[in-house]
Amino acid sequence: MPVEKSRAVMRHDPIVERDLLAPSGWPLAIVGLILIAALAWLAYARFDDIPRQWFGASAIIIAVLLMRGFVVLQPNQSVVCILFGSYTGTEHRPGFWWINPFSARRKVSRRLETHECGPLKVNDALGNPIEISAVIVWRVQHAANAVLEVESYAKYVQAQSETAIRRMASAHPYDQTEAADAPGQSGTTHFSIALRDGGDAITQALLEALRERMEPVGIAVIEARISHLAYSPEIAGLMLRKQAAGAVVSARRMVVNGAVSIVGDALKQLEEKNLAAGIDPERKAAMISNLLVVLVGEREVTPVINTGTLYS
Q1: What is the pLDDT along the chain (312 residues), one digit of tens a residue?
Q2: Residue 146 burial by CB count (10 A; 0-12/13-18/19+): exposed, middle or buried?
């Protein structure tokens, strides 16, 4: 029987943030000042019967350890503590605190930060190259996860934001007109949301994608909005002409529909008032043609009046 080689799978246990509850630094600061005053007194006093050297060395060591443990935290600031490779806790409270001087500490700001991602060049769902930018407002929600789960949470936010924007842009067309005109596609069937017309739906989709990527590392995404959206320069002129042509076609179609409706109403009124009884089909067709020319034509029509022939 073939022997299957088993591979060791490294399991990663998520870090659960817990409060450190550090003591206030003011009482220990007073102790440190007392030790410094005692050292100063011993430096000038002369007592042969007191082992000043031993007392002075001990006081210096204690004072250094006390001073090393002091930490000042501002509002919306945290400090993550690690003692001999083990996570011991996180202090969130602003103030003056004393922490074990042998622990490694890293301060983390929990203030709101703004990251502008882009402009990025991406292909939309139809393959058209577009430029897209987004503004993302985020903050560190769990300091321990942000420090211990990734090497640099700022670089992580930058990379994941770009990935989420690219993925969202490639899943939607630039607008519904392009989706409807694409061969074999239907704007209402395959693509329910367009980037240009999506509005809050696109914003919500981007926000959910970012939160899904950021929450495992303790980052909270507050807001994400598209700040720039346009076709790439190489096709911008072509797409502009295409949109202008589409607008002209739509306007002409509206004019023609209105002209046909007006001609139909005119013929209906003539028949109701028995004014079209003596008109043969050929003259009726000519009248319809003349009405359409008058209504649809872009220039003013110059009437031609038939006053009869010279030799009647």
Answers
A1: 444 444 444 456 778 888 988 898 898 888 888 877 877 776 666 555 556 666 666 777 777 888 888 999 999 999 999 999 899 999 999 999 999 999 999 999 999 999 999 789 888 888 888 899 999 999 999 999 999 999 999 999 999 999 999 999 888 888 776 555 555 554 444 556 888 887 888 899 999 999 999 999 999 999 999 998 888 777 656 667 766 666 666 777 787 787 778 877 777 777 777 766 667 677 777 777 777 676 666 666 666 665 555 554
A2: buried
In CATH terms, the superfamily for domain 113-236 is: Band 7 domain (3.30.479.30)
End-to-end CA distance of the chain: 117
User: Can you give the chain as a three-state secondary structure string?
Assistant: CCCCCCCCCCCCCCCCCCECCCCEHHHHHHHHHHHHHHHHHHHHCCCCCCCHHHHHHHHHHHHHHHHHCEEEECCCEEEEEEECCEEEEEECCCEEEECCCCCEEEEEECCCEEEEEEEEEEECCCCCEEEEEEEEEEEECCHHHHHHCCCCHHHHHHHHHHHHHHHHHHCCCCCHHHHHHCCCCCCCCCCCCCCCCCCHHHHHHHHHHHHHHHHHHCEEEEEEEEEEEEECHHHHHHHHHHHHHHHHHHHHHHHHHHHHHHHHHHHHHHHHCCCCCCCCHHHHHHHHHHHHHHHHCCCCCCCCCCCCCCCC
CATH 3.30.479.30 intervals, the chain: 113-236
